Known about the structure:
Elements: H1 28-80, H2 85-117, H3 166-179, H4 203-206, H5 212-227, H6 232-246, H7 249-264, H8 268-291, H9 299-305, H10 309-352, H11 355-358, H12 366-370, H13 375-383, H14 386-394, H15 398-411
Helix pairs in contact: 1-2, 3-10, 5-6, 5-7, 7-8, 7-10, 8-10, 13-14
Amino acid sequence: xxxxxxxxxxxxxxxxxxxxxxxxxxxxxxxxxxxxxxxxxxxxxxxxxxxxxxxxxxxxxxxxxxxxxxxxxxxxxxxxxxxxxxxxxxxxxxxxxxxxxxxxxxxxxxxxxxxxxxxxxxxxxxxxxxxxxxxxxxxxxxxxxxxxxxxxxxxxxxxxxxxxxxxxxxxxxxxxxxxxxxxxxxxxxxxxxxxxxxxxxxxxxxxxxxxxxxxxxxxxxxxxxxxxxxxxxxxxxxxxxxxxxxxxxxxxxxxxxxxxxxxxxxxxxxxxxxxxxxxxxxxxxxxxxxxxxxxxxxxxxxxxxxxxxxxxxxxxxxxxxxxxxxxxxxxxxxxxxxxxxxxxxxxxxxxxxxxxxxxxxxxxxxxxxxxxxxxxxxxxxxxxxxxxxxxxxxxxxxxxxxxxxxxxxxxxxxxxxxx
Length: 419
């Protein structure tokens, strides 16, 4: 049986007819004004009291948040030192204050409910006046998010195209290839502009990377704080406060390669936490792209979905897959670094050898010869890649290729009797 409709709230309607009950010796208009003034003053006093109660609730909530944080922190310290009785006393004191604040807030909410329950309705508060003024925003019809679902960098964050070094571009491409679903780019190693020889790129090719160094300079602390958050609730609250920073693609880039850096430095636990935070940002951006809306609008819906077991398990599975890819990429990156160091060590050792002793069979100095070779041939010799060397020679005119190869043989860079 359906629950009957509660008509009791209509019992508290104050009608103007109620004011007709006036003594003949009292002026009717004056009586109406007096009744109206009394009603207005009563409502103003109630609203003032409600604002004070809400302010007290907010103040108490902030204090309770601090107390919970302090209690959690002390418990963590206590776990490391079980014999410290002072911590127990301090926890009890903080908990007592927390309980008192919760009880006080409960009473305040009861008073607000009582105000609402006993609220009297009249012509002044039964409805609201809505303005019919219409203003069209200058940005109407323009999307305030990128094609990949992220918040675009702020106007003040935009720079002229940044000139990136080759190593930076390679690291970005490798991260993209190994990241998979999130399709983010960037590297923590390019927070500082590259030094030495650089190569210019088209602004369209650089994309979001053109603002990355400035983003790191301004907001690295915010991203680092987000990386340290251990739980989803804390991540949600922090995102709501810093969405304009953390939902930029540069922030996703920072998190992606911070994960790689942590893994390469042996900080597995930190990598796992940072990788999870990276996937939170990526999933929010993907959800915003799917819903065709600003990513800030899907923060709460995303975390609401995480309260459902099937969505949470799917998210955890995706995070684990991403962490595995970070581990695999770290192994490859270590090998690349070791190979580069080996080449540098070989070059340094060769420089230490007297020139007379390092001359090749044709009497040429290999260090002098390699400085004159085309860049593609230099890379092939440094990586010891025969196929790459052949490809570099194919790009040259036959006479030029023969000239360089003869000098390589005479200097000992190439063994003519080899394969």
